[in-house]
Amino acid sequence: MSRFLGIDWQLIADNHEILLGGLQYSLTLTASSMAVGIVLGCLLALARLSSITPLRLFAAGYVNLFRSIPLVLVIFWFYFLLPFFGFKLGPDKSVFITFAIFEAAYYCEIIRAGIQSISKGQVGAAQALGLTYAQSMRYIILPQALRNMLPLLLTQTVVLFQDTSLVTIIGIKDFMGANVVVASNNGALKEMYTFAALAYFCVCFPLSMLLKKLHKRIAVIR
Amino acid sequence: MNLHIDWGILWQESPTGDGPYWQLLLTGLQWTAATALSGWVIALIIGAVVGVVRTAPIRTLALLGDAYVEVFRNIPFLVQLFFWFFVLPEMLPKAAGDWMKQDMPRPEFITAAVGLGLFTAARVAEQVKSGILSLSRGQKNAGLALGLTLPQTYRHVLLPMAFRIVIPPLTSEFMNTFKNSAVALAIGLTELTFQMKQMVEYSNQVIITIFAVTVLYMVMALAVNRLMAWIERKARVPGMIAGGGK
Asked: pLDDT tens for residues A101-145?
């Protein structure tokens, strides 16, 4: 009776605590990396577009480095390096740093494209009005840029949510990690991994669809 | 904490029986490249088919193509790999499942390459579709007016253009196959990141190991990037604005 789609739902119900705990961990990790990543990414984007050469080079180096290596590798960097340098945070806290630093590179590129999509005349107009650099960014450029790039920022966040499943590799009980634990405790690999795939799909698919709609709407208004 | 940097470690014998540590990393590099390249070939073939089907006038097929893309884009790659590796053999008829579990050669590699191919195919399909849609309707109509059948129009008119237009986004997908292949360590493929983990655990030379492996990944990314830039230049459509080669 409790079987549907090849999954024993009683098993899921019995383990709902650990699964929900995992989901909560994944969502917290996603939200915090998004928040920190967007702020860092914004600073990096400004640095990449700045007229100060060392700043520009640093930001370009940062972005190119993190965009050419796998996230799994970066997870292991911090997994090995933090204890090596004497920081005893534990993996489940240190990945918060990993993800924020890694995702900042991706958010940076989206934000940079957003800023560059604003016509040069706007910057000129702001300067002509006597606004400082910070003021023109704050009141003229960023509000418009943010609007243009919102769908892309959110799409990246859905990707980020999927990427958080990788922390399972270092033994963290995120949503996927929780599934792995339940699967091996109950000898139910087939059922739990099917369930995990279904669950991720049920979260990500509606969000992707919504974002597609948003993308169209914003594109039309612009 | 061992801050002493000793490059000699790379020539020391590793306890895994794979020879010195540099060889351990080289094996990893080879598996990473093999997985990424075979995954990419699979992705290009399936991605092209799915991308074409999504723009074709057969509604059921187009819907199936859309469904393929949505399924593979909305489930994390790690979860997909676990599914192929642990669940698929249980779902197949018993004989086939047993074969996958017992007799399939190099199960981690085949699963990783095919899984990566199917995953990347969804992204390739998305690019191919947008490439085809970016062509003016006149191209397709002109092909049909010349008496070509629809498949011929695709083969001789639309696809040669579409593929060249989408080379830049395909470049980043190609680079992604190298990066994503690292996820396969979760099913036991001894690719580069897996070997890095082993080397750190056995040799305790954290800094050197991480540095060496990071450099190797960056070299691979750069190589792919240059290769694709070269192809882009070679394949440039004369007279179109977006020229290759940055």
From this structure: 999 999 999 999 988 888 888 888 998 999 988 898 888 888 888
For A2-35, the pLDDT digits (tens) are 666 767 788 888 888 899 999 999 999 999 999 9
Inter-chain residue contact A204 with B74, CB threshold 8 Å: yes
Nearest to A81 among B182, B186, B210 (CB): B210
Domain ranges of chain B: 7-234
A3-221 fold: MetI-like fold (1.10.3720)
Q: What is the pTM of this model?
A: 0.89
Report pLDDT digits (tens) over B187-209. 989 899 999 998 888 888 888 88
Output b/e per residue, B203-212; b: 16+ Cβ within 10 A. Answer: bebbbbbbeb
Mean pLDDT across chain B: 88
* Inter-chain residue contact A76 with B77, CB threshold 8 Å: no
Specify the pLDDT at position A6: 67
Mutate which: B5, B66, B82, vs A, most A CBs within 10 A: B82
ipTM comes to 0.89
- Give me the residue from A68, A71, A208 closest to B218, CB to CB: A68
Percent of chain B with pLDDT over 70: 95
Do residues A105 and A66 touch, judged by C-beta distance below 8 A?
yes
Q: Which fold has domain B7-234?
A: MetI-like fold (1.10.3720)
CA atoms of A171 and A191, how far apart (whole Å)? 20
Q: Tell me, what's the pLDDT at B2?
A: 56
Interface membership of A80 toward B (CB under 8 Å)? yes
CA distance, residue A35 to nearest chain B CA (Å): 21
Question: What gap in Å lies between CA B125 and CA B43, rounded to an integer?
Answer: 9
Residue A4 pairs in a beta bridge with A7
Distance of residue A195 Cα from the nearest chain B Cα, in angstroms: 10
Task: Find all residues with CB under 8 Å of A24, minimum gap 6, and list them.
Answer: none
